[in-house]
Amino acid sequence: MMEIIDKTKKLLGVSLAGAAALPLLVSCGEEKEQKPMNILFIMCDDHSYQTISAYDTTFIRTPNIDRIAADGVRFTNSFVANSISGPSRACMLTGKHSLANGFTDNSSSFDGSQQTFPKLLQQQGYETAVIGKWHLTSEPTGFNHWDILIGQGDYYNPTFICNGEKVQREGYATNVTTDLALDWLDNGRDANKPFCLLLHHKAPHRTWMPDTCDFDLFADSNFPLPDTFYDNYEGRLAAQGQKMSISKDMDIVYDLKMADKDSTIHSRPDLEAWGRRMYSNMNPEQKRAWDAHYDVVIEKFKAAGLSGEALDAWKYQQYMRDYLRVITSVDRNVGRVLDYLEEKGLMENTLIVYTSDQGFYMGEHGWFDKRWMYEESFRTPLLARLPGGVKGDIPAMVQNIDYAPTFLELAGVEVPGDIHGASFLPLLRGEEWNPGREGIYYHYYEYPDEHAVKRHLGVRTERYKLIHFYEDNVWELYDLENDKNELCNIYGKEGMEEITETLKAKLVTLQKQYGEEQFIAK
């Protein structure tokens, strides 16, 4: 399918993080004009790698997102540092793990006075903008222009804060966000400067409300339940206490849109109230389209009288159909942006990156949502197209703390020594790479919360994963080569002593490297 780049396996090169780098320039035209590289960073919220056809064709085709991979690279081992929205975004902006950047969970407020890569790019002469979801509580800093959704934002007729002023805009959030980005590229920026645009979609965040033109998609599709849908979590105590089950915790009104007009369907009172309130934000035309679709679904649901496993299966199908409809809109709008870049001749000097703030569960282990260090939420899609760069798969293990130093090196900015990440620009050029770390470090802090995922940290290597649920002092160990679904916790099993001690030593090394000594197991 794609050419494999094995050079990334040879960790013999010298990391460029922390060292001065020359700007990457593209020679264009007869006069050999040197053009600096622009940066377009497209990030969605909760977009699973399972629902991008460059990774997996089981559920959906995403031809426009796939265009980035086809003309660039697909990272097959891309991870986050903390699988939850705000903290993940803070890691991306700073290139540092959560404790160091101060935004450990969604109750935090981002300290906008600290060093971020947009500020450093501004100092290099870049025009910077963030448009769409921000979700960091404080106002953006380091941007020439910002136009952000309030909090999670609404799917229909969302209110934005544009450079400090609230503005409600008619339409569907993904379309509106794209419109704003294209308008800034066309009319809002200084065309004499290189740009860095962070285009951040709300979609496909819960509650997966589709664009009205996509309601009929997937109506006749039936998706097979994942093999692990009825996982019993044997040997995994933390997983036994979670509250993110499609069967038990996915709300029939709030999540699955069963807000019937006569209010005979009831669910958890607070979520039901939110579910019915979402409808009120629509205009009359949107409501008519919504009713034409969901009233039919509601009546069929009532008539079916489902329970037990039949109800579980129905909830899964309803979840998947709406989620995939939302992804269809994302893909269509990515296509609009790529078409614009091609039309304006910007493809020749623009790095394009597509990712998500974390992974997401498509029913694996019976779940929706994220948070865990388990693969589906720990992994994130990452596609990149660098003009003049290599094409194919990149198997090297990268993390979202690596984005900031990558963008800085691309722009010729010296990467500050306090940044935790390592620039993966050498990988995009087909060069050898040494990130200078023992493995991939993870730390999730948000407990208690509505999904009851315990605080945990850990280390992942190419084959193994060690997790410590430190408040309960419970350990989990997985051999990912022989147990890709992470069903068998082999911590403490006979024969695992040596690998366990090796991984614990790697974990301590990373904790010291990232200033997390206080969490080293005693």
Walk me through this protein's architecture.
It contains 13 helices and 18 strands. The chain has helices at 63-70, 85-94, 98-101, 117-123, 173-188, 237-240, 269-280, 284-304, 308-343, 375-378, 403-410, 425-428, 497-513, and strands spanning 25-28, 33-36, 38-44, 73-75, 78-79, 127-132, 145-149, 159-162, 165-168, 195-200, 350-356, 382-385, 392-394, 398-399, 440-444, 456-460, 464-469, 474-479. Helices cover 29% and strands 16% of the residues. It is globular, with a radius of gyration of 23 Å. Helix 1 packs across helix 9 and helix 5 runs parallel beside helix 9. It has 522 residues and is α/β, with parallel strands linked by helices.
Which short descriptors sum up this protein?
522 residues, alpha/beta, ten-stranded mixed beta sheet, four-stranded antiparallel beta sheet, 13 helices, 29% helix
Provide a short characterization of the protein structure.
With 522 residues, this protein is an alpha/beta fold.
Record the SSE blueprint.
Layout: E1 25-28, E2 33-36, E3 38-44, H1 63-70, E4 73-75, E5 78-79, H2 85-94, H3 98-101, H4 117-123, E6 127-132, E7 145-149, E8 159-162, E9 165-168, H5 173-188, E10 195-200, H6 237-240, H7 269-280, H8 284-304, H9 308-343, E11 350-356, H10 375-378, E12 382-385, E13 392-394, E14 398-399, H11 403-410, H12 425-428, E15 440-444, E16 456-460, E17 464-469, E18 474-479, H13 497-513
Parallel strand pairs: 3-10, 3-11, 4-13, 5-14, 6-7, 6-10
Antiparallel strand pairs: 1-2, 4-12, 7-8, 8-9, 11-12, 15-16, 16-17, 17-18
